[in-house]
Structure prediction request, 521 residues.
Amino acid sequence: MKQTTSNYRDLSSLRWRVLLAFIGVLGITLVGLPGTTSTPALAATSLPCNIYASGGTPCVAAHSTVRALFSAYNGNLYQVRRASDNTTLNIGVLSTGGYANAAAQDSFCAGTSCVITIIYDQSGHGNNLTQAPAGGAAGGPDNLAFANSLPVMVSGHKVYGVYIAPGTGYRNDHTSGIATGDNAEGEYAIFDGTHYNGGCCFDYGNAETSNNDTGNGHMEAIYFGNIKVWGYGSGNGPWVMADLENGLFSGANTRLNSGDQSITSHYVTAMVKGGPNLWAIKAGNAQSGGLTTMYNGARPNASGYNPMHKEGAIILGIGGDNSKGSAGSFFEGAMTSGYPSDATDNAVQANITATGYSPYTFSALAPGTRLSLRATTACCTGDYIRHDDSDTKVVISSITASSSATDKADATWIVRAGLANSSCISFESANHSGQYLRHYAFELYLDPNDNSTLFAQDATFCPQTGVNGQGYSFPALMYSDRYIRHYSYIVYAASDGGPNTFDSAASWPDDVSWAVASPWA
Prediction:
């Protein structure tokens, strides 16, 4: 809530007015504690958890693979484990209160794949996030996120976020300081607004300690996605909502709350805060501007949510019972003790927008580039993705200088801005204008663009650094756990260890990693 001059009637002297103007020029934010008239000044270098502490609602959990969330933090942000020898490396900050040392990760993981094994808690409470165990929902323990899947630029630094494909998740069931029962708390997170699905449930926040659904009101976590099974907002989504267990809530009603607006920004600030019969949802563009209050009021009007029965575990990427059909991308987030004021929320958002989140661009994959894609699996390093002139299927085969002109052209692609998401890419055939690589029933084909929404989605892939440390990998836009993969010389959209033969986990990191080569035609 914006402060007015009535807050400063006692600052009537010219001296105080000049001082306040000087503070404004410096960009220092004044945050008042709820129920008091004090206005402690925040240093321009204050980070989110400094701001929360100044507002009387200190962080009791703070997680980020991108940056420190306390200005004095000089510890580890996360840990990675490489596949080649199963050794681990802690990734810290470049300087106190600074950004992740991504170069250390790149060096450690070069030539192999790495997963994120621990996301460290910066708050001092020891609330680290590790691989989520099996829960009441179907399936065993969760997968760990590939460490190099989500490069992003923050204040000019290349760093990595946490890319959650369905089946991936993190948890801590034995926490310290996290709100339980009806006690007040605040939560914020930064998500990628272009990476989501309608699965259950991409959450960050407070959950059950047993990994089981223990009833209404036993959770209070931020949700991001476009599922409409429970609550939802205006438009087609995605929405920031609250997972309160046995319901995703966009407001007081159990279904539609039109005040919860669809998200349109690339990077999203998402906030949920709750206390005794009071809670709120806020969201904003993490690159610019302020927050929008999507809901602020009484607890949902269904039974079990007033009072709340929070248990105090922390989850990332999954639901409270380990439901793991969700997809999303996480960069940073924190949980507080106490209900943050609107002034504190606004100050946190101001810090986030000043941080400078922006996409990491792969220059080798710029739209308009002509290229060929070569397999990196040891068996097939002379094979390239190509379309088969005998049908519309996509395969890999050997292409050499002595290959026919037709074969060379069949193995050449033109990079286009993603048909369904301009932050991603599509591959147009170099010798069949208007025809694109697209998946259908998880097999890849070359088909003409029919300008439908479905075709655009099926023909859009979001590049990442190669899973095996070489080249690039290309998960499908709408099936982020499925990557362009060769199997028995046919090209699929395959998951790692899924239900189909072509989802085999054997050599999966190599089979989904592609070297960008000079175009054959």
Summary: The CA atoms of residues 91 and 104 lie 7 Å apart.
